[in-house]
Design a protein that fits this description.
Bound molecules: iron/sulfur cluster
Number of domains of chain B: 1
Radius of gyration of chain A: 21 Å
CATH class of chain B: Alpha Beta
Number of domains of chain A: 2
Shape of chain A: globular
Strand content of chain A: 15-25%
Largest sheet of chain A: 5 strands, parallel
CATH architecture of chain B: Alpha-Beta Barrel
CATH superfamily of the largest domain in chain A: Aconitase, domain 3
Oligomer: heterodimer
Helix content of chain A: 25-40%
Number of strands of chain A: 18
Largest sheet of chain B: 7 strands, mixed
CATH class of the largest domain in chain A: Alpha Beta
Shape of chain B: globular
Order of helices and strands of chain B: EHHHEHEHEEEEHH
Distance between the termini of chain B: 36 Å
Largest interface: A-B, 48 and 41 residues
CATH architecture of the largest domain in chain A: 2-Layer Sandwich
Chain lengths: ~425, ~160
């Protein structure tokens, strides 16, 4: 019996030839990623209590993104602690205020196919887009990794999601995921691995693949995964990373999959998830006309370079409706720089988008752009849980950057395809 | 010891357990807002040793372990649910909170008096005079949970030099 890609990576990390789903194994960790919220401020007390040191500072990456830039004494203190801890522990890979961890990690060349990676954040499955097995852990689990260099895992099975065909104009991988959230359900993946394959995936740029793996978290998967190909190798090489023998990190043909879901990309419409669950999603038509006060393009899920391109395709030559605020928090400083160079940023700001710092910001309810009681927001983020983006009675609709931008222009939820067909008005 | 049950539905997420608005502040303050979006009374009324019962997918959402810690601060030592979100489940065991998966969790009603035998995987509902079976904790992790979680477990491991 062959093995899935996830099983192969776990077997390597466990120093074994073969592992089977359901087994408990201890794995050596190739890389550990932490941010300012779940990182130093939470692991330091544990390490101090144990009198222990970081097992290998070269295998640790720290990225400040949740509380940046500091807006009050508490967030300033958290960032201060983060910076001091990184210096004291000789962590060379510290990216301070450079963007959201899941985007900065591959951007700086830290990920290679076949790696076993833990991240101190629930959207860590994003790294799976690079052919790594990457999963999210809490701070105590992370402290265990920092002390021992290893962690336990119950070997997950793999659910295959085969996406064939080509996405229609105005439809993106965010729409695929909102569709899957409704179909499989929040947590429907039951802490197994979801591996995306099929002809649609081959045609997707890395950033769109990252969106798929990112929202595997909403399906309740432990990890999302896409086997590396030439597109992956080109991205990693450009980022200064190491592609290694990426062609060998593929699932076997005769591997055992728990389930296979088929998606025909060309038949998908833009989707919108109504409050308060990503699984509450339906084709955009079901929600069109819902009046909004805020539109948010942000987060690791929805403010990467391609995401900004999607918004710009809609906003080019148009204006945000009066009384509506369109907030834009690019996912990383590199994203901002590239969007300035290619002209995207001018299109967005001329349309009326208000530029916010790169970081988690309103997505986590920590930073700028949070909502008042009863306010309605359409957002390119991954989660619309009750109260997440601000007041408990605020309402968040999730959508692609195309749909968020189109809704900002209309002042209510709207199908972006109308704007793309009409061209500039 | 008998415990009083607090019952919540499916998909209780980490933002409801540990709301983002209070994440920067002290954990004791965060705890007073635990579950307030679904039951404003919970944090004030829950007592040491009470048990929280969830439906499917308890703890879905972020990796913040404050979602476990606030429950622990409020006196919860045992969680029972039809299913747990993966990261939350790891976090619970890492804090020495016994998290039990029980297919019959929905038979427990708010206020029922129950006793839990985690090693044998049985839950007795004294109010209804019923017994339910649940998945016992994974054998590999029993020692860690019994010691009070990951930190005491690591302490012991470092002391022994392994
Ligand atoms: S942008 Fe949002 S989803 Fe992404 S890491 Fe930050 S808080 Fe989490």
């Amino acid at each position: 019996m062959g093995q899935t890609l996830a099983e192969k990576i776990i077997a390597k990390a466990a120093g074994r030839g073969h592992v089977s789903p359901g087994e408990f194994v201890t794995c050596a960790v190739d890389l550990a990623m932490m941010h300012d919220s779940g990182g130093p401020r939470r692991v330091k007390p544990v390490l101090d209590r144990l009198g222990a040191k970081v097992w290998d500072p070269g295998k640790v990456v720290v990225i400040s993104d949740h509380f940046v830039p500091a807006v009050d004494a508490m967030s300033a203190a958290i960032l201060d602690l983060t910076r001091k801890w990184v210096a004291e522990n000789n962590i060379q890979n510290f990216h301070d205020m450079q963007g959201i961890c899941h985007v900065v990690l591959p951007e700086r060349g830290h990920l290679s196919p076949g790696m076993f990676v833990v991240g101190g954040d629930s959207h860590s499955p994003t790294g799976g887009a690079f052919g790594c097995f990457m999963f999210g852990v809490g701070a105590t689990d992370m402290a265990g990794v920092l002390v021992t260099g290893e962690t336990w895992i119950k070997v997950p099975g793999t659910i295959r999601i085969n996406i064939d065909g080509q996405l229609a104009p105005g439809v993106s991988s965010k729409d695929i995921m909102l569709h899957l959230c409704a179909r499989i359900g929040m947590g429907g993946a039951g802490y197994q691995v979801v591996e995306f394959c099929g002809s649609a995936i081959e045609g997707l740029p890395m950033i769109e693949r990252m969106t798929l793996c990112n929202m595997s978290a909403e399906l309740g998967a432990q990890a999302g995964l896409i086997a590396a190909d030439k597109t992956t190798a080109a991205y990693i090489t450009a980022a200064g990373g190491n592609v290694g023998d990426y062609e060998s990190w593929q699932g076997d043909r005769d591997a055992n999959y728990l389930d296979t879901h088929l998606v025909e990309a060309s038949s998908l419409a833009p989707h919108v998830a109504a409050p308060h669950s990503p699984a509450n999603s339906a084709p955009v038509g079901e929600h069109s006309g819902v009046v909004i006060q805020q539109a948010y393009i942000g987060a690791c899920t929805g403010a990467k370079l391609e995401d900004l391109h999607m918004a710009a395709a809609v906003l080019n030559g148009r204006k945000v409706a009066s009384g509506i605020r369109l907030l834009l928090a690019p996912a990383s400083t590199k994203t901002t720089a590239a969007a300035v160079v290619d002209g995207t940023m001018a299109i967005l700001t001329e349309a009326g988008a208000i530029l916010l710092p790169s970081g988690c910001g309103a997505c986590a309810g920590y930073g700028a752009g949070i909502l008042a009681e009863e306010e309605v927001c359409i957002s390119s983020t991954a989660r619309n849980f009750k109260g997440r983006m601000g007041a408990a009675s605020s309402k968040v609709y999730l959508a692609s950057p195309y749909t968020v931008a189109a809704s900002a222009v209309a002042g209510h939820i709207t199908d972006p395809r109308e704007f793309l067909q009409k061209g500039v008005s | 010891m008998t415990s009083r049950a607090w019952v919540f539905g499916d998909d209780i997420d980490t933002d409801v357990l540990a709301p983002g608005l209070y994440m920067k502040g002290p954990i004791e303050v965060l705890a007073t807002h635990c579950l307030e979006a679904v039951d404003p009374n919970f944090a004030a009324a829950v007592k040491l040793g009470d048990v929280v019962i969830g439906g499917e997918n308890f703890g879905i959402g972020s990796s913040r372990e404050q979602a476990v810690q606030v429950l622990q601060i409020l006196g919860i030592r045992t969680l029972i649910a039809k299913s747990f979100a993966g990261i939350f489940y790891r976090n619970a065991l890492n804090f020495g909170v016994t998290a039990l998966t029980c297919a019959e969790a929905e038979k427990i009603c708010a206020g029922d008096e129950i006793t839990v035998d985690a090693p044998n995987g049985t839950i007795t509902n004294l109010t209804k005079n019923e017994t339910y079976s649940c998945d016992p904790l994974p054998e590999q992790l029993m020692e860690m949970v019994a010691l009070g979680g990951m930190v005491p477990y690591l302490e012991q491991r470092l002391r022994k030099g392994i």
